[in-house]
Design a protein that fits this description.
Layout: E1 12-14, H1 22-27, E2 32-35, H2 51-62, E3 66-70, H3 75-85, E4 89-90, H4 99-108, E5 115-119, H5 122-132, E6 135-139, H6 148-151, H7 154-165
Parallel strand pairs: 1-6, 2-3, 2-5, 3-4, 5-6
């Protein structure tokens, strides 16, 4: 029997996107990755990707994975940043609602069981992904600076993660 907390429990926890086991995901039938932006691929409200992130995304694409950004950020920011990576971007995705993730899946022509949601927050990224049937990957936040309303949720996230390890 599943509990309510299972909806918030990621399938995988890694320190950064570079630790995502792409070969394992491919073996499990995962063909696409949906990425949160802020504090997943760059610092919160950042304007440029660090070169290692850009290189990692390009290498991921070269391995045959489809990639999209699904962010709650405004369109003008997402258009610029997704173009920098050469991937589609869904702005104002509304996470934890699932509509933006469905839109990203449609753009990539993937079913939920063929994609993973990658993000730094349990109560937006992981919850939305779990509810849609995506494989979910929680990454440590990219930088410590973040808005107060996100900081306020971090103790609850740590409690969920402790439960996962138990």
């Amino acid at each position: 029997m599943t509990s309510l907390l299972d909806q918030f429990t990621p399938d995988l926890v890694v320190r950064s996107v570079q630790e995502i086991p792409l070969q394992n995901l491919a073996a499990w039938g995962i063909r696409g990755l949906l990425f949160d932006l802020d504090n997943t691929l760059m610092e919160h409200h950042g304007e440029r990707f660090d070169p290692f992130v850009t290189l990692w995304i390009k290498a991921t694409l070269a391995q045959g994975f489809k990639v999209a950004i699904a962010s709650n950020s405004p369109p003008e920011r997402i258009v610029t940043l997704s173009a920098e990576l050469g991937v589609p971007g869904i702005a104002r995705s509304g996470k934890p609602r699932r509509g933006g993730l469905r839109q990203a899946l449609a753009v990539l022509d993937l079913r939920p069981d063929e994609a993973a949601m990658v993000g730094d927050q349990i109560f937006t990224d992981v919850w939305a992904g779990r509810r849609l049937g995506l494989y979910t990957i929680l990454v440590d936040r990219y930088a410590r600076h973040e808005p107060w309303f996100i900081q306020a949720k971090r103790p609850l996230e740590r409690a969920v993660l402790r439960r996962r390890r138990a």
